[in-house]
User: What shape does this take?
Amino acid sequence: MEKNINGSNIHVNEEGYLTDFKEWNSGIGTELAKECLIDLSPRHWEVINYIQGEFKKENPLSIRKIGKSGVVDIKEFYALFPKAPLKTASLIAGIPKPASCI
Amino acid sequence: MNNLEYHGEVRKMMIILSKASIENVYAAFILANGARMEGIDAELFFTFFGLEAIHKKKLKKLHVATVGNPAMHIPTLVGAMPGMEAMATKMMRSEMEKLDMPEVEEFLGILKDSGAKIWACKLAMDMFHYKKEDMFNDIDGVITVGDFYKKAEGFGTQILFI
Assistant: This one.
């Protein structure tokens, strides 16, 4: 479905994840974060850049991997993106919902 | 979200682990971690043999059960032969490593960092003569069954026995 955000039209699935990463830009990320009640700080952006990098390399993401990334530890990851951190961070980053159980 | 807005969603998983074979320990850990990943609270209560999963020395030596486990598809007598458990355990560990599954101790650390709570059963601790110092450093405490139920209070709590 289409969604108008930050002045541009993007395509999202029924859970709100972008279906085409190419449509993402940082303005859209900021707006998506606001919908998740998160004000993005520089730390958030470091994490978002990291997970986008992994997505581009086609590396699947998991909580364990985030913890070993050297970018953020698991505690801080949960603090930055409360509730469901991996899902929320992926949604903001414009990448598909991770299919990981760990 | 208040209780008037409760629509039946799972808000907290209370998982009781009573066994120490690897497959059961991982089932409990993955369910708890999966809950946290979804924004659901998770608390683990380790009782009876489940305590081995948080016992500093024993958690490094957990095994797969090859006897009395029909899904292993090996005859009981063969499963009882020396070395079978070790072999099955080694195979399972290598498969888990491929899936990027952490070792037990690392997994406990991930659970704690994710905000899960880890409780040891007082009665079972007394029965096995374990002390709190024998256990994984980051456990949240040694509690009774009554304490555990108290912690389960509220809308949307599910209790699961493994």
User: Anything to note?
Assistant: The mean pLDDT of chain A is 92.
